[in-house]
Write a structure and sequence with these properties.
Layout: H1 2-7, H2 10-40, H3 49-77, H4 85-113, H5 120-183, E1 190-195, E2 198-203, E3 207-213, E4 216-221, E5 226-229, H6 233-239, E6 244-248, E7 251-254, E8 258-262, E9 268-271, E10 276-278, H7 281-291
Antiparallel strand pairs: 1-2, 3-4, 3-7, 4-5, 6-7, 8-9, 9-10
Helix pairs in contact: 2-3, 2-5, 3-4, 3-5, 4-5
């Protein structure tokens, strides 16, 4: 049964729960009334269960119709993140008003059904007093139950809307990121090298090649200056643009400044300033592909 309920939508589940509560309340009151009639011989005619059930049903139908106001009020308040003390007071006042309205309508209908002479004293002293004691407690409990159920339903509905909005926002941001990332190069354009208490800013297009130097690297510029930098070739390889190519485990070269590839026994690249940089056999094909 619980597995079957789990497959039902929240809206249908809420309706089923409310209908079950209503059916249990009507059946309970019918049995209760039948018991008292039989126990204390309160009726001269023969009273049947279904006859009493019919009477109880129309009274609960009135209760159900008036609950529309409570459901509307609950839907309005479900948008709030947290209910205040004043909201609870409003709920209590509305429930009491609806209970009184239900009792009053039932009392008037009952006077009309029994064709009793209508008077305010009879309405108040006989009918309103009787139905208040008989119906008010269970009507109040019923309204409290329906308030809790509908508040949870509308709050969940509001949460689903927010989840859908967040999902849409995530999708939109993801699409925007993909568009921008395809147009924007996130590679660095400068190297920031610390020299003593100063910082040397070197544009990457001014770098001719970079060589590994123990736990550091040595950055060579087109002016044939060299700067030591605490980094690794692997880390710099990821930051530099596509013109920089790993030609050896100890060297990265700015291929824009390469003028010749020497394919002798020990392949090497010759830069525009005639610097020769060894090319490893494992990187030779990558260099050839780049140059072609």
């Amino acid at each position: 049964m619980f597995k079957a309920m789990g497959k039902i939508s929240i809206q249908k589940r809420s309706i089923i729960i409310i209908v079950l509560i209503l059916a249990i309340a009507i059946t309970f009151e019918t049995f209760q009334q039948l018991y008292y009639i039989k126990r204390f011989n309160l009726a001269t005619d023969d009273v049947s269960f279904f006859g009493l059930l019919k009477t109880q049903s129309y009274r609960w139908l009135i209760w159900m119709i008036l609950s529309i106001f409570l459901i509307w009020f609950t839907k309005v308040n479900a948008t709030k993140k947290k209910l205040s003390s004043l909201d609870f007071v409003k709920y209590a006042a509305l429930i009491l008003i609806l209970v009184f309205a239900s009792v009053f309508i039932i009392a008037v209908i009952q006077i009309l059904l029994v064709q009793d002479s209508f008077s305010m004293s009879s309405l108040i002293n006989d009918y309103l007093t009787f139905y208040t004691f008989q119906k008010a407690p269970i009507y109040i409990l019923g309204y409290i139950a329906i308030t809790i159920i509908m508040y949870l339903y509308f709050a969940n509905e509001q949460l689903q809307v927010e989840v859908q909005e967040l999902h849409h926002l995530k999708k939109t941001n993801s699409e925007l990121y993909n568009k921008l990332s395809s147009k924007i190069d996130d590679k660095t354009t400068i190297l920031n090298i610390k020299i003593g208490n100063k910082r040397k800013i070197i544009p990457v297009d001014q770098i001719s090649w970079i060589e590994a130097d123990d736990y550091c690297v040595k950055v060579h510029t087109i002016n044939e200056d060299a700067y030591a930098m605490r980094s690794s070739l692997k880390a710099l390889e990821k930051k530099l643009n596509g013109n920089f190519l790993r030609v050896h485990r100890k060297a990265i070269v700015n291929m824009k400044l390469a003028k010749e590839l020497n394919l002798a026994n020990s392949p090497n690249l010759i830069l525009q300033n005639n610097t020769e940089i060894q090319v490893s056999k494992s990187n030779l094909k990558t260099v050839k592909d780049f140059l072609s």
